[in-house]
Every structure is written in structure tokens, then in C-alpha cells.
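Project channel, design review

CF: Before we commit to the Sporosarcina newyorkensis 2681 constructs, I'd like one complete example in the thread so the newer folks can see what an input/output pair looks like. Taking YugD like protein.
RD: sounds good, go ahead.
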Amino acid sequence: MNRNRIVLFDGECNFCDASVQFIIKRDPYRYFSFASLQDDVGKELRKQYQIPDNVDSLVLIENGKAYTKSSAALRIAKKLDGLWHLAFLFIVVPSAIRNRAYDYIATNRYKWFGKKELSCMLPTPEERQRFIA
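CF: and here is what came back for YugD like protein:
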């Protein structure tokens, strides 16, 4: 398991879950490991990397540094298979502008995509290895 790049995600969010599945399918080299912001590992990593409590969507911990919002999303895209790595070019756009768009989606994600019910997708054994427990 790769602990150099850990994606923390909102475990209650359907959009976030879909995003994790999207990353897994486009990460054949297994660059990323995953943990929910709500579980014990996620809470410990938040504390260790001083991630504020009000951060409730995507976080990337990469080589000892935590990235949030659009910076996290773009750095993740940079490592994905296909043409997704080209999205990293948007890093030249000032973060204030990028984060406005990111915040709009993050603010509305529950309304648009809903929250998880009690049941959720069961990962395959190979996918399960990528989640930090």
C-alpha cells in the first residue's frame, strides 16, 4: 500500500464515494491509498497534518504535505491514467478562482448527489487493500 499519497474523503457523500471509485479505476499503478475523514485513521491524519475541522471534502496527503480543495483534485488528476493528467494544467489558475468553483460543487454535493444510506458498495479484495483502516 502506498502511504506517500493518501486521499481523505467524506465517507458520507455519494459524490465523494463516486470520486474514489473514479480514482481507483484510473490508478493502475496504485499511487493512492484512501481513508474516510470520519474514521479513526482520517481523524488522526487530520490532527497530524493540522487539517481544519471545517474541511469536509477531498484532501490529498502527498509526501508529507496536505492539499485541499482544487489543489488536491488537480494533484490527484496529475497521476491518473488517460488524459486526466492534463487537468493539472489548471494549477496555473489562481487558487482563489479554482476554489470558488470547487466550493460551489462541494457546497451542493449532498443536494445533488445525496448522502450515503446504511448500505454501500463493497470493494473487491484488491480495492479493499487500498483503504487504510
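RD: helpful, thanks. The mean pLDDT is 86.
CF: The helical segments are 14-25, 40-48, 69-78, 95-113, 125-128.
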